């Protein structure tokens, strides 16, 4: 109200801008002057004029009002998807395999929306969701110790398979189906401890009566694929993460008598926070695409 009066130089014009009565404006000015124990306006026959104290106050109020206006415009842009950010967490290979096509399509439609990605294991992604550091997270399901803090927005099944290099000695193991226990005894290349995939492989090996003794421990699926291609060992990996290499004949699927249990992958968010307009629109594009 002070700002409108200072801008118009008139109590009546300020009242018109604010859609209130002039007596209400006069009373508010009186209250403010009493609170600050100083006169802010000089009353004249044709309006009001700022006192030196009023001009000093305006120097602080004016930048604040301009910033508020910028903030309101930014909120409008965010709500209309002209600006904003979507923060996504997950393993690099998951984001590349499952989300990148949607990211590309969304960016073309809403170029003002920025994307940021953080990489981590499922439990790290869950913590990032709980802490509010990301909007969406790609995780293996079911989640352990997540309680009611995480909501699953989308999920699907993935098929883990054994793979080997097509030009390696392990290719001979592809001639006929074998039990999982046989393959678990071969030199195995696995992800580092703590990952959901590593725990899954250890549990399956144990179910087959085999104590897992990895040949090599690495930090990425891409490195696993390359080492398998070179013949360092074999690996367990989701089929859709190696579909390209299987189609090219670079890697081979090692047939099993009994398939490994399917795994569930999901896109999660914090149940304690509402999705931003941009993140909600991103998920809507996925569901309609």
UniProtKB/TrEMBL annotation:
InterPro entries: LysR_HTH_N, LysR_subst-bd, WH-like_DNA-bd_sf, WH_DNA-bd_sf. Keywords: DNA-binding, Transcription, Transcription regulation. GO terms for molecular function: DNA-binding transcription factor activity; transcription cis-regulatory region binding. It comes from the Bacteria. Residues 1-51 form the HTH lysR-type domain. The keyword Phosphoprotein does not apply. The keyword Glycosyltransferase does not apply. Belongs to the LysR transcriptional regulatory family. PANTHER family: HTH-TYPE TRANSCRIPTIONAL REGULATOR (PTHR30126), HTH-TYPE TRANSCRIPTIONAL REGULATOR CITR (PTHR30126:SF64). This is LysR family transcriptional regulator. It comes from Paenibacillus cremeus.
């Amino acid at each position: 109200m002070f700002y409108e009066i200072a801008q118009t130089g008139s109590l009546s014009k300020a009242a018109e801008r604010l859609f209130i009565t002039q007596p209400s404006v006069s009373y508010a000015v009186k209250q403010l002057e009493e609170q600050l124990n100083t006169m802010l306006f000089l009353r004249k026959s044709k309006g009001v004029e700022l006192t030196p104290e009023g001009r000093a106050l305006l120097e602080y109020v004016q930048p604040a009002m301009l910033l508020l206006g910028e903030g309101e415009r930014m909120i409008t842009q965010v709500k209309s998807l002209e600006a904003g950010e979507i923060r996504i967490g997950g393993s690099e290979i998951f984001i590349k395999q499952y989300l990148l096509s949607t990211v590309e399509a969304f960016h073309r439609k809403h170029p003002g929306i920025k994307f940021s990605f953080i990489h981590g294991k499922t439990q790290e992604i869950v913590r990032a969701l709980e802490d509010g550091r990301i909007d969406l997270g790609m995780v293996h399901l079911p989640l352990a110790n997540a309680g009611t803090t995480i909501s699953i927005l989308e999920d699907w099944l993935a098929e883990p398979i054994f793979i080997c290099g097509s030009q390696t000695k392990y290719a001979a193991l592809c001639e006929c189906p074998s039990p999982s226990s046989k393959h678990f005894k071969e030199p195995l290349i696995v992800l580092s401890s703590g990952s959901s995939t590593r725990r899954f492989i250890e549990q399956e090996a144990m179910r087959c009566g085999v104590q897992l003794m990895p040949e090599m421990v690495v930090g990425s699926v891409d490195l696993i694929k390359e080492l398998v291609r070179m013949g360092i060992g074999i690996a367990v990996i989701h089929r859709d993460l190696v579909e390209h290499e299987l189609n090219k004949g670079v890697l081979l699927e090692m047939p099993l008598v009994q398939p490994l249990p399917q795994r569930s992958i999901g896109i999660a968010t914090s149940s304690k926070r509402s999705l931003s307009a941009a993140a909600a629109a991103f998920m809507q594009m996925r569901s309609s695409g």
